[in-house]
Amino acid sequence: MARVEYLNVSGLRSDGRRAGEVRALAASCSVLPHTDGSALLECGGTKVLAIVSGPHEASKRATVKDAEAASINVEYRYVGGSEATAGRLGAHVQAAFCCVRSQL
After folding, report:
1. pLDDT of res. 54
2. What would the pLDDT profile of 34-50 be if each residue is shown by its tens digit?
3. Which of these, 15, 61, 62, 96, could form a disulfide with 66 (CB 3.0-4.6 Å)?
4. In this structure, is residue 14 part of a structural domain?
5. What is the pTM of this model?
């Protein structure tokens, strides 16, 4: 399906960019102290903060079988007023999960 762009009478998109303009992209590494890794990605008004920490000792509930396995805990949060919808959120989370799993 073709993507439709909506321009106002001045030839601008709703965010103020011209039809041929792209959003500014910025990336920074090691942005937070006391983590094993962190990165901040910015594209237009969207910001994504990723943090990696660990490894940690297994919980007391872990079994011998769990000792040879790894677990990854992923948390995501949207700020109030973001344009994410429940349907889009599910698709994005599933895609991120598949990406992480393929790297293990």
Report:
1. 81
2. 989 999 999 887 888 88
3. 62
4. no
5. 0.57
Provide the residue range defining the domain that includes 56: 25-102
Is the model's pLDDT at 95 over the cut of 90? no
The answer to whether residue 82 is domain-embedded is yes
Please say whether the dihedral angle defined by the alpha carbons of residues 7, 9, 15 and 19, taken in this order, is positive or negative: positive
Q: How many domains does the chain fold into? A: 1
Write the CA distances from 8 to 24, 44, 72, integer angstroms. Answer: 21, 19, 45
Please tell me what DSSP assigns to residue 102.
H
Burial track 56-88 (b if 16+ CB lie within 10 A, e otherwise): eeeeeeeeeeeeeeeeeeeeeeeeeeeeeeeee
- The Cα–Cα gap between 100 and 104 comes to 7
The kind and range of the H/E element at 75 are: none
